[in-house]
Amino acid sequence: QLYRDARECLTLLSQRLGAQKFFFGDSPASLDAFVFSRLAPLLKAKLPNGKLQQHLKSLKNLCNYCTSILSLYFPWDGGEMCPPPSPCADGGEAEEDPHKRRNQLLSVLVGLVAMLGYAFLSGIVSIQRGGVGPAGRQQIALEEEEEEE
């Protein structure tokens, strides 16, 4: 019942939008922001059950609506959201990001550097240089004497 209601809602939104750029003409309104905030994640997220996502992708005007808003207001992330149907019927990814492993490694390295930087700056970890010579040897000798007592 829930999926049927959601499909009906998407169909009604598609009918209301028609061929317009936004729901109330050529400029966005608060309804556009609300609708986009619900549709964009549905288009971009990988869902375990993609029935609703496939229905949304079949409504080309809603798909183009999200793509145009992404390219207008989020140009760094406005990639193609509604690719043509892939020949893969299993719903798996046809193409995998060729730089996925490199990006994962860079993410880990940046996180590690950030944590180490925080540890040094907050004083959790500090580096002390010991002198080479009699002063360094005296300190060791004093510690050994304390242990013997």
UniProtKB/TrEMBL annotation:
Alphabetized InterPro entries for the sequence: Glutathione-S-Trfase_C_sf, Metaxin_GST, Mito_Protein_Transport_Metaxin
The UniProt record lists the keyword Secreted: no
Residues annotated as domain Metaxin glutathione S-transferase: 6-69
Bilayer-spanning residue ranges: 105-127
Name the record gives this protein: MTX1 protein
Swiss-Prot/TrEMBL keywords: Membrane, Transmembrane, Transmembrane helix
A GO BP entry: mitochondrion organization
Origin organism lineage: Eukaryota, Metazoa, Chordata, Craniata, Vertebrata
SUPFAM superfamilies assigned: GST C-terminal domain-like (SSF47616)
Keyword DNA repair among UniProt keywords: no
Domain of life: Eukaryota
Listed Pfam families: GST_C_6 (PF17171)
One annotated Gene Ontology cellular component of this protein: SAM complex
